[in-house]
Amino acid sequence: MKLYPIEAGNFKLDGGAMFGVVPKSLWNRTNPADENNMIDIAARCLLVEDGNKLILIDNGMGEKQSEKFFNYYFRWGNHNLNDSLKKAGFHPDDITDVFLSHLHFDHCGGSVQWNKDKTGYEPAFKKAHYWSNEKHWEWATKPNAREKASFLKENIMPLQESGQLQFIADPVSDFVKKTPLGFDVFFADGHTDKQMLPHIQYQGKTLVFVADLLPTAGHVPLPFVMGYDTRPLLTLTEKEKFLNTAADNNYYLFLEHDAHNEIITVEHTEKGVRLKDCFTFNQLFNE
To answer: Rounded to an integer, what distance in angstroms lies between the CA atom of residue 3 and that of residue 5?
Structure first.
């Protein structure tokens, strides 16, 4: 097995929305805001090369939305999905599986692209299976008013129409071992229904793709919960369980949305679980 961090682009989001009820005087220490109260955000994905499988976990916003849409998110930097894949030595047609932690546009927008004539949409990874789960798919295709703006039909329905959509089996608990893609998955419902967090065994370490359960290193303290979460009190419970397990077992947490920290570990302290160490991918894994 070999892993590759894939940078699909950087953007900005409102710091208050990213930290919910936590005062700016606290979150601004770890995630400093600009003059518009916006903080730096990444769309960092993970590519898993495992035998004859090449699995892409999440894929950012994509490139097909209007300029007006992108202007809301203040994109910055030079990263994009296809260039990052090319840098790793791959082409979109090499991808065999696309695993989607959930179907919010900043996680799955790169799944779909304009067709050649720009008359409609098609999957961006033509030879890949796309993996979600039935309960989250139902949640995303019949969205509540709060999340409707995050579940864009053009990112979702072409996957079903193409015949490339597959489902991870509905979990009987919040942790499922050995999914069809070979890794374990933790299911979390606080941010959105049945978000999936892959646990990957790599070079003697457990690497967890934490998606939106833990967007940045600044979100480690329990009350630091996004305003975007549909069930923030449930997020508190899920975070507490997950972070205690991560500290107990020395998990390495791969951060999708932290523009400045790629991987962190956490530890038990008198104040609860707190940040321990930060790593770049290259520091941690000798490729």
So the answer is: 7
